[in-house]
Amino acid sequence: MLRFEPGSVYGDGGFESFWVHGYRMRVIEINCLEVWKEISNYLDNDVEPELRARIEAHFKVCAHCTAILHGTRNVVKLVADGMEYQMPEGFTRRLYDKIKDNDVLHDVISE
Amino acid sequence: MEALNASLETRESELVQKAGAGCREAFYQLVQPCERVLFASAMAILNNGADAEEAAQEAVLKAFANVSRFRGECKFSTWITQICINEARLKIRKARKHLYESIDEPENGEDGDYFPRDFADWREIPSEALQRKELREALERALASLPQKYREVLILRDVQHLSIEETGQILGIGPGNVKTRLLRARLQMRDALAPGFDGTWSLGRQEYVKVRAW
User: Fold this and answer.
1) Which residue, A11, A15, A86, B28, could crosslink A26 as a Cys pair with Cβ 3.0–4.6 Å?
2) B100 to chain A nearest CA, in Å?
3) In a 10 Å sphere around its CB, with 0-12 CB exposed, 13-18 middle and 19+ buried, how is residue B4 labelled?
4) What span, in angstroms and rounded, lies between the C-alpha atoms of B157 and B151?
């Protein structure tokens, strides 16, 4: 994972940058709309390193997008923790009984 | 890990064979680990426990009747979840037929950009807060407010934690579409929940900070 190290990476021209195989990669800005489009992939760790660096550089200076990032991350977590649907009482048993006793199945199978 | 996967696959294909020959016990062993995802995926469409159970049961019976056609091109769980999604969709279409006006979602293009409506920053809502009834209800309402196609993806990805590939297989859409729908679903959930978090959810002062610079 690429990480910015404050102090060491701010360089010429005011660009943020990071190093790959000894080459300094400058991070070119992207706008809010582009960040929103990728925010879900970003949370899933599913963006290329270069884009990731741009997005992170954007978050550093944009409170709105940072707010959206936090909110969206929170939603993902809340949905995961909170939406585990309670299966109706007896669901498992009734499903098992269906498989065991259903006559329709008998017909299908004995065909 | 690969060896384990391979042996699980062998075990699955053995069970499939037995089930195809009519062995109910073998079939049940295949179905049992899928119960939760079957119920959840039906819920994503039907939003009602009793209907979702019925759809899951019908899907299971259909799967048993057709198990000999399952060729192992995907995981058994993927295959049976596909069937369950189809059952649930049939059910909801039947239910909607009686309505005068179509309540199908307006087709907003997949590619259109979605603009977040709210820029409030509510970064720390602890999951313990879920024990509070209001938050759970707000979540359920937000989820119910999503168009069905976004809800399906959200449930499979963020509740059932299926991969993008599996989610796409189950819903019959490509990975790019899964990602687009997931983005929409998450952003809309955020918008739907954000107003509810107007300070009222926070347990402490730092947890909700409004950021509305424009």
Assistant:
1) A15
2) 31
3) exposed
4) 10
